[in-house]
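Quick question, first post here. What does this chain look like in 3D?
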Amino acid sequence: MWLELRDAVRRFGERRALDGVSLALEEGDIGCLLGPSGCGKTTALRCIAGLETLDAGTILSQGRVLEGPGRHVPPHERGIGLVFQDHALFPHLSARRNVEFGLRHLPRPQQRSRAGEMLELVGLADCADAYPAQLSGGQQQRVAVARALAPRPSTLLLDEPFSSLDVALRERLVGELRALLKSVGATALVVTHDQQDAFALADRVGLMREGRLEQWGTPYDLYHRPVSRFAAEFVGQACFLPACCGGSGLLQTELGPLREGHESTACGGEVDVLLRPDDIVHDDLAPLRARIVERVFRGADFLYTLELPSGRRVLSLVPSHHDHHVGEQIGVRLATDHVVTFPPQRVLTIAGGP
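> Answer (accepted):
Ran it through. Tokens below.
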């Protein structure tokens, strides 16, 4: 493995900011730590960078122990690049000089050449002599990435790199950053609280909760195969519908039968089935009717909150040319490929990730 955390523990007084976190990244992979504020994701990044010291556990880079019992490699000897949330550019230095800052061990001509290469790579060759105050937020971010990549680090760490950018700009830059990292074969670990950023950027996503790694997997698996109710609720939007397990391999729900899949828990009684908005399809020919109680226009589609005959509510994503109003009854049916169940809860939950 290229980068590994093994049972990492970091305490602040009585609180465990990291509580036995283990994860691994292959060379060239982009990983992302996702979770609510205070879950420990930034602490994990700081420990990898060497800015925090583990209380227990091990951190390895290409098999080399960076942190472990009796060992702490200083940050500047780890070969790890770090992009801070606020970019941390030197305001009195030009873009080129900011990139050259981490290359002071090289002769001056090599510094200038390498900085020029990196600014060209991030599309800012024409801004080499501009100062940070003369650059947009997106340009400042790209300078920060160029500076971090210039020394050819083994791994690049990015702490909330898009938090200060507006929505339209961050959507574009997420794609640009992924393409850039892939073009140079960089291994990277990114911290974010935004699941859309995580899904668009990462090959592997780690969902953290109260210092623990709740799930580590592909974005697809986190969305379609969550390992816990917390993961199901945090990632995407979710509702849970009661179901009865029979001996025939079918789950009987108010919306119709579902065949148990490999994601289902073994059952012989009542369970809650996870349903995503795209699992419930608007179909005028469907015999089951549901009443629209809320609708959110999202451009290409509507997100309808639907009330079933029982009074339970579910979510449905419907193309925007199906323009129905609150109070209307529409036909609905199930169209799910992933049957995920959890032990039942008495309180019905409709939840959406941030």
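Residues 262-266 have pLDDT under 50 and may be disordered.
The chain is about 20% helix and 35% strand.
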